[in-house]
Amino acid sequence: MTTDTTAPTTATTATGTxxxxxxxxxxxxxxxxxxxxxxxxxKQGIDPTLAELVKIRAxxxxxCAFCLDMHTKDARAAGEREDRIFLLSAWEEATGYYTEKExxxxxxxxxxxxxxxxxxxxxxxxRAAEQFEEAELARLIxxxxxxxxxxxIAVTTRAQPGAYRPGMYA
Length: 170
Hints:
Elements: H1 24-27, H2 29-43, H3 48-61, H4 65-77, H5 82-86, H6 100-113, H7 122-131, H8 134-157
């Protein structure tokens, strides 16, 4: 327990919003580097466009503005169409916009991100297993877990959206 009486790093603005709490990379660089390594390993062999769609969808579900800013910009830079990005929050109703493989990945993303019943339903897992080879599915699961961890880091530390440029963290 610390007895430091300095003011907290969070400041409330006139609009009631809060500024960033901390920069994890500065405060815990070994944790940050481990996350970066996990990120790199998990996306190997995954189609870059699919990866961005998965990251955007998980970030929507987790209300992570920082990651939404980052991954929509990365998706655009990778050539993703605006309409597919805009419709991602309603992907199930947007028939004809996403391939069956993408739809299976998005369903798995939602099931892993929102563990409503405490587990990933067998039907969702089976649907993904039909579309992805086992090694690719393992990486997809790892990537979903990784973006969820990044979302939780960014939301907790109140990372601020807006300044990211594609390739900044490559």
